[in-house]
Write a structure and sequence with these properties.
Strand content: 5-15%
Structural class: alpha/beta
Strand order of the largest sheet: 3-2-1-4-5-6-7
Oligomer: single chain
Shape: globular
Order of helices and strands: HEHHEHEHEEHHEHEHEHEHEHEHEHEHHH
Number of helices: 17
């Protein structure tokens, strides 16, 4: 069967759309898309692969370190790109043969032979954004999802959101493929950590963007109550954020490498992940893979990802409860070891290689369905 799949993959034409690299500097979708590109370049005939992007994609932190052969790269004219990013991609191909088109961010290819695939990550715009920005995003997203031949959600939670916000979508064209975690995230030895950046003996960690629904203010309250430093990974704190953390020792790290972030997870007392909504939540399993306890809220996809009966999963954000659990991690070595072991075992359910294999199977299934 694998031999037949390999032979089939040599005949498939794949076009990828690097739109997300122009859209964001860093984030979970960029990491996801990096793994899609790696899978396609490894599994399919390069002669049959084309990847479209704007020059500004190179400003993305993930894209900078991603090697794409020039022979498969098609550079788009980025004049008026702020308008073009909301438009479906109109391209010409040298033949009339069908091809799979997978966009990294909510658009389809208008070519009549395109078999359009879209991955759906979350519904944050629908839940939290207002005004013109929300309307434009919703319109372009809805247009693309209705046009697509197949949809993939990163969690069952996101699938439920999709069918809630767009009940007209045919559920039979919706699949679920979970995100993964890089093998670089692991438990480090004391010897490995001894040569790295010195950090306080106990500190709390916050990873990702700090939109209001991420509840960064709750993380600050926990650090303030426990008098622990807070290491913040992501964009530099704004002036307003800096004024709100005057009573907390804040350590800022802007977009560290995987190796550096792995070290922070290994050293942290806990990752604070109090977000009230996630499509998946990659930092949860990155931390667990490093043995780092994760304090999170039992909402949206988090229970699905963090594992059943996880001791640090809060039904609601209660400051007293959160602080008691963090303090117990410091005082009770056995409790901390049990939480770390449970998290590590759970994280082994996910990997980028597993996700890549599932997408490879999905691509071939779509090709067989539409082309054979």
């Amino acid at each position: 069967n694998r031999h037949n799949l390999y032979n089939l993959s040599l005949s498939m034409k794949i076009i990828l759309d690097n739109l997300v690299f122009a859209w964001q500097k860093m984030g979970g979708i960029s990491i996801f898309w990096e793994n899609i590109i790696q899978m396609v370049l490894q599994r399919f005939d390069p002669e049959q692969v084309r990847i479209y992007e704007w020059p500004r994609a190179r400003t993305n932190y993930v894209r900078r370190n991603l090697v794409i052969p020039p022979s498969v790269l098609c550079v788009l004219n980025e004049c008026f790109w702020k308008v073009k990013r909301y438009l479906n991609l109109d391209i010409e191909t040298p033949s009339s043969a069908p091809f799979l088109f997978h966009s990294s961010y909510y658009r389809v290819c208008t070519h009549p032979r395109a078999i359009n695939i879209i991955t759906i990550h979350d519904f944050t715009y629908e839940k939290y954004v207002t005004g013109l920005k929300r309307w434009v995003h919703q319109y372009t997203k809805r247009r693309a999802l209705l046009k697509a031949d197949a949809l993939v959600c990163v969690s069952e939670s996101t699938r439920k959101d999709l069918l809630h916000y767009m009940p007209e979508i045919n559920s039979e064209k919706v699949s679920v493929i979970h995100n993964g975690v890089a093998d670089t995230y692991r438990i480090l030895s004391e010897e490995e950590m001894s040569s790295m950046e010195p950090l306080p003996p106990h500190f709390l960690l916050f990873v990702g963007n700090r939109a209001p629904y991420k509840q960064f203010s709750f993380a600050v309250q926990v650090a303030e109550r426990l008098k622990l430093p807070l290491l913040v990974v992501g964009a530099p704190l704004s002036a307003a954020e800096l004024s709100s953390v005057t009573s907390v020792e804040v350590i800022q790290r802007k977009f560290p490498s995987d190796a550096e972030l792995c070290y922070y997870y290994n050293r942290a007392t806990a990752l604070l992940y109090p977000s009230e909504y996630e499509g998946f939540g990659i930092p949860v399993i990155e931390a667990q893979r490093c043995g780092c306890p994760v304090l999170a809220q039992a909402v949206s996809s988090i229970p699905e990802v963090i594992g059943t009966n996880y001791p640090l999963l809060l039904r609601t954000l209660q400051l007293d409860t959160a602080c008691q659990l963090i303090q117990r991690l410091i005082d009770d070595t056995t409790f901390r070891e049990d939480v770390s072991r449970q998290g590590l075992d759970n994280s082994l359910r996910f990997s980028w290689s597993k996700m890549q294999e599932e997408y490879f199977q999905f691509y071939t299934k779509m090709w067989e369905k539409h082309c054979l």
